[in-house]
């Protein structure tokens, strides 16, 4: 995910530390202690890696992946290569149930007190005893669109809008099995977690019919296609909105009326990882006030930490000051923290079990091959 320009210098500094590939080691930090982290690409402020190494003396080996489905076989087959991961709700549930995660040592994570209680309650959907997962980001999936190019009288409020022929070549969809199939399901009023074959085939049929209308299937770059004018409608996460609004004041975001996905991406410790203490130290650091605010400023995703929540108006005002000289263009915090009415229409993805996974994989392969 491309960030706000003020962070370019940070990325340049961190580039000096790159040893090769996607791994990042400590700059000038000589220590035998290390922690290996596996995370979604560009999902933390990279300066925090340097800060963690400086504060703890623990070297960070940082690797990234694109989708949960890419992460799964790596942890299943080579779990010892990583100490701590950041993954989505349903994948945390799957890894936990299959024995690939270790319980958190909460005595080593005093900053757990900084996580808003309502978000720890949400974690219970996929981690019933709050033993394995700590929220990193939270939000909803929706449609971001360009109000200017679509026309001021156009109302975007439904997944079915992404099937309108008049938008051919201007639509961006995710390239992610559960998310993309989920859109097809929600369009038809079905649950994101259904294993009903007929409902899944209906979603598959609709997604195949939509294909000629879609400009691109992408993940992290979707917002940039809207900002730059290459597309008019894109499926994105609500965390993309503030940055996008700062770059293009004509964009807006909506959670469709049929409902959508509510996600929680969380930190967890792997069962086979060799550096448990360091993994818990990393999680504790990421829950600190400094890390939480830095990550909100960098990602503009909802960080469920009391220091972000308590300072949200100020943080958003600072972003508006930077982008629009304090003109108040960025002022709608209900996209960052959606209302209860919006959340009532949303679902958290669940682990479907091996039979459900096979069913979705078959549906996805047919869709991709058609």
Plain-language structure description:
The chain is built from 16 helices and 13 strands. It is α/β, with parallel strands linked by helices. The strands form two sheets. Strands 3, 4, 5, 6, 7, 8, 9, 10, 11, 12 and 13 form an eleven-stranded mixed β-sheet that branches. A two-stranded antiparallel ribbon has the order 1-2. A hairpin with a 2-residue loop joins strand 1 (18-20) and strand 2 (23-24). Helix 7 packs across helix 8 (197-210). The model is unreliable at 1-29 (pLDDT under 50).
Shape: globular
End-to-end gap: 29 Å
| Content-based structural category | alpha/beta
State the low-pLDDT regions, or none.
Answer: 1-29
Total helices: the number is 16
Layout of strands and helices, then pairs:
Layout: H1 8-15, E1 18-20, E2 23-24, E3 34-40, H2 47-56, E4 59-65, H3 68-78, E5 84-88, H4 89-97, E6 101-102, H5 117-123, E7 134-146, H6 147-150, E8 171-173, H7 177-187, H8 197-210, E9 214-217, H9 222-227, E10 233-237, H10 241-247, E11 251-254, E12 260-270, H11 276-286, H12 289-299, H13 306-310, H14 312-324, H15 340-343, E13 346-347, H16 353-369
Parallel strand pairs: 3-4, 3-5, 8-9, 8-10, 12-13
Antiparallel strand pairs: 1-2, 5-12, 6-12, 7-10, 7-11, 7-12
Helix pairs in contact: 7-8, 8-16
Key phrases:
single chain; 370 residues; alpha/beta; eleven-stranded mixed beta sheet; two-stranded antiparallel ribbon; 16 helices; globular
Summarize the structure.
This protein is of the alpha/beta class.
């Amino acid at each position: 995910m491309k960030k706000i320009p003020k962070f370019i210098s940070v990325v340049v500094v961190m580039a000096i530390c790159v040893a090769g590939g996607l791994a990042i080691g400590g700059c000038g930090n000589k220590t035998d202690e290390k922690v290996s982290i596996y995370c979604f690409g560009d999902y933390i402020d990279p300066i925090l890696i340097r800060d963690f190494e400086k504060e703890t003396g623990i070297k960070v080996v940082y690797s990234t992946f694109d989708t949960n489905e890419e992460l799964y076989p790596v942890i299943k087959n080579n779990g010892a290569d990583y100490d701590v991961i950041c993954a989505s709700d349903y994948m945390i549930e799957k890894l936990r149930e299959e024995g690939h995660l270790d319980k958190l040592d909460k005595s080593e994570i005093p900053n757990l007190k900084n996580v808003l209680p309502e978000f720890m309650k949400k974690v219970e959907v996929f981690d019933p005893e709050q033993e394995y997962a700590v929220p990193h980001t939270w939000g909803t999936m929706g449609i971001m669109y360009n109000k200017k190019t679509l026309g001021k009288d156009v109302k975007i409020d439904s997944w079915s809008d992404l099937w309108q022929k008049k938008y051919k070549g201007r639509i961006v969809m995710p390239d992610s099995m559960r998310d993309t199939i989920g859109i097809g399901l929600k369009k038809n009023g079905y649950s994101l977690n259904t294993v009903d074959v007929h409902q899944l085939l209906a979603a598959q049929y609709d997604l195949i019919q939509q294909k000629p209308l879609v400009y691109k299937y992408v993940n992290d770059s979707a917002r940039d296609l809207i900002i730059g004018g290459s597309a008019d409608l894109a499926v994105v996460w609500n965390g993309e909105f503030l940055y996008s609004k700062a770059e293009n004041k004509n964009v807006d975001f909506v959670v469709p009326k049929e409902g959508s996905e509510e996600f929680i991406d969380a930190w967890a410790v792997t069962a086979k990882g060799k550096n448990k203490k360091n993994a818990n130290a990393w999680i504790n650091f990421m829950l600190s006030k400094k890390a939480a605010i830095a990550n909100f400023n960098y990602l503009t995703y909802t960080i469920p930490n009391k220091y972000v929540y308590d300072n949200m108006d100020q943080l958003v005002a600072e972003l508006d000051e930077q982008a629009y000289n304090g003109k108040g263009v960025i002022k709608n915090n209900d996209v960052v923290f959606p209302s209860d009415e919006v959340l009532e229409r949303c679902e958290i993805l669940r682990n479907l079990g091996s039979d459900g996974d096979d069913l979705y994989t078959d549906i996805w392969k047919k869709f991709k091959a058609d």
